[in-house]
């Protein structure tokens, strides 16, 4: 009788659970039993592992084989357990030393020829192994860079099962032929899930461009008020609602928001990379998401595609793919009411909890929401002399598709007016480029980070209302207009807190120690849409 054990990782959402893979060999009729709540793809690993071991010039044990995956109560799926199952079997058959793999975490799919194929979710799997106290992991060679992002973990990237056997037995490591440049690599197919990235724009930018080729804010003609609101949104992490006729530049503005956001911190990069890796949209050769993701789903998206779902355990949706970045909902009234209202909880908490019969999954969802909408179905309601024929009841019904509770969670509401001839033809002043605006955004965020150094928050939009009112008061007398609007019913209690957060961001951009009356007036104007006599010229923060 032979016994051996090693470890692998089961992913539940974007969180990993270390699984002990045990192999037991007993005399009897040759059979292979896999227990421990495996799904269909994991059950099929019996055939993959057997073919891989035989084709790697190792002897297949003709005994009664039982492989157990513990804890048995955790659902397990995917092909990432193949490498651990094969190693445990070989150790139980004494082909390799059982003690050599007892403290290893092995992740990877096996091809029938013994090649180790990459799988999705390597980063969160290695993070889970590190948190559990493991310091050595074995992963496919193509994903070694992604696994190496986790500090304190020794990563071994292998190309074939033969290489792993040789390394564990101190034999000469066979040299496998490298992949030929210029030919498609079928081994990378496991990293990208077809269709999973549709409409997401990936992590680099609105069309998957590198960060240094993102659309420039200088391309937007006019729209000084909307540009200022975009800058405030980027500086404080505030949600934005753009309304206006077709062709005013709402989509252009939203696509340029990632270009003025600060680069992600190391922790934020790891969080975003983990989600993209699990979703199967992490570009090969780019193991780390360094810039704010941008996700723009079509208005036909279902609620499950927005917040997460799918068969079995839920998979990340658009709100998670936009984690630490921008979620842009163009033509937002055309989204289903259920899908839009499902955003309310993640907008407040920064995560989404999806419950299914197979289990409950907590997915990260701290994103910057940008909504865009036309004023009416034809889009010409606010234009003069263009012949909008939409009945008033139709207009009210169209605008009511965005519920009050959802809009109450949006800090900035701006009307994008039609572009004038002088702005469009370049006769007016040219707008600032993204680099100039991004520099001001970074300075404002640095001021906020310094002020919030002894707190768990880093941006103004994350400060709870009670702490905002008690620990960070505005200048004396600055709240008079806010209190007046609260008494008139123009602001809710949540709206009051959001106005204060925006005012602090305006103060950070202007270099003020505390929000002044003018800062509060601008925040109120951007919240309610009622003019407060504040100049809207972009760049005037003092």
TrEMBL record:
This is Mg2+ chelatase family protein. It comes from the Bacteria. It holds the Pfam family Mg_chelatase_C. Residues 236-420 form the AAA+ ATPase domain. GO terms for molecular function: ATP binding.
């Amino acid at each position: 009788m032979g016994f051996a054990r090693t470890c692998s990782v089961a992913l539940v959402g974007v969180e990993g659970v270390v699984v002990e893979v045990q192999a037991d060999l007993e005399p009897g009729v040759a059979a292979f039993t896999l227990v421990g709540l495996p799904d269909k793809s994991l059950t099929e690993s019996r055939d993959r592992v057997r073919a891989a071991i035989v084709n790697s010039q190792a002897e297949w044990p003709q005994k009664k084989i039982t492989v157990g995956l513990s804890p048995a109560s955790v659902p397990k799926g995917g092909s990432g357990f193949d490498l651990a199952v094969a190693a445990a079997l070989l150790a139980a058959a004494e082909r390799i030393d059982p003690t050599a793999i007892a403290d290893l975490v092995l992740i990877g799919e096996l091809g029938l020829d013994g090649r180790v194929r990459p799988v999705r979710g390597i980063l969160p799997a290695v993070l889970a192994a590190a948190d559990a106290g493991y310091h050595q992991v074995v992963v496919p060679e193509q994903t070694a860079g992604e696994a190496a992002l986790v500090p304190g973990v020794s990563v071994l990237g292998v190309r074939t099962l033969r290489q792993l056997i040789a390394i564990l037995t101190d034999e000469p490591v066979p040299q496998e032929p490298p992949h030929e440049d210029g030919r498609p690599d079928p081994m990378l197919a496991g990293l990208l899930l077809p269709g999973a990235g549709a409409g997401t724009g990936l992590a680099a930018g609105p069309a998957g461009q590198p960060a240094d080729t993102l659309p420039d804010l200088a391309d937007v003609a006019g729209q000084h008020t909307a540009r200022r609101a975009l800058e405030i949104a980027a500086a404080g992490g505030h949600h934005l609602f753009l309304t206006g006729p077709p062709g005013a530049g709402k989509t252009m503005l939203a696509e340029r928001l990632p270009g003025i956001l600060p680069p992600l911190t190391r922790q934020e990069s790891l969080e975003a990379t983990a989600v993209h890796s699990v979703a199967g949209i992490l570009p090969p050769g780019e193991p780390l998401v360094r810039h704010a993701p941008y996700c723009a789903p079509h208005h036909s998206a279902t609620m499950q595609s927005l917040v997460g779902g799918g068969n079995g355990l839920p998979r990340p949706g658009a709100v998670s793919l936009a984690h630490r970045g921008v979620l842009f909902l163009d033509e937002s009234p055309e989204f289903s009411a259920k899908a839009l209202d499902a955003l309310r909880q993640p907008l407040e908490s920064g995560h989404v909890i999806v419950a299914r019969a197979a289990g409950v999954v907590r997915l990260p969802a701290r994103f910057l929401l940008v909504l865009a909408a036309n004023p009416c179905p034809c889009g010409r309601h606010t234009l003069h002399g263009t012949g909008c024929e939409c009945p008033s009841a139709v207009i009210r019904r169209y605008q009511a598709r965005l519920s009050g509770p959802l809009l109450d969670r949006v800090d900035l509401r701006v009307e994008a007016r039609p572009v004038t001839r002088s702005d469009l033809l370049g006769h007016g002043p040219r707008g600032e480029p993204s680099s100039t605006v991004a520099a001001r955004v970074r300075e404002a965020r640095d001021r906020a980070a310094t002020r919030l150094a002894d707190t768990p928050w880093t941006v103004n939009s994350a400060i709870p209302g009670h702490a905002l009112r008690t620990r960070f008061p505005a200048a004396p007398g600055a709240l008079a207009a806010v209190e007046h609007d609260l008494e008139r019913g123009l602001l809710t209690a949540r709206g009051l807190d959001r106005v204060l957060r925006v005012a602090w961001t305006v103060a950070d951009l202007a270099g003020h120690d505390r929000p002044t009356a003018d800062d509060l007036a601008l925040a109120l104007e951007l919240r309610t849409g009622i003019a407060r006599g504040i100049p809207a010229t972009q760049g005037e923060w003092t």
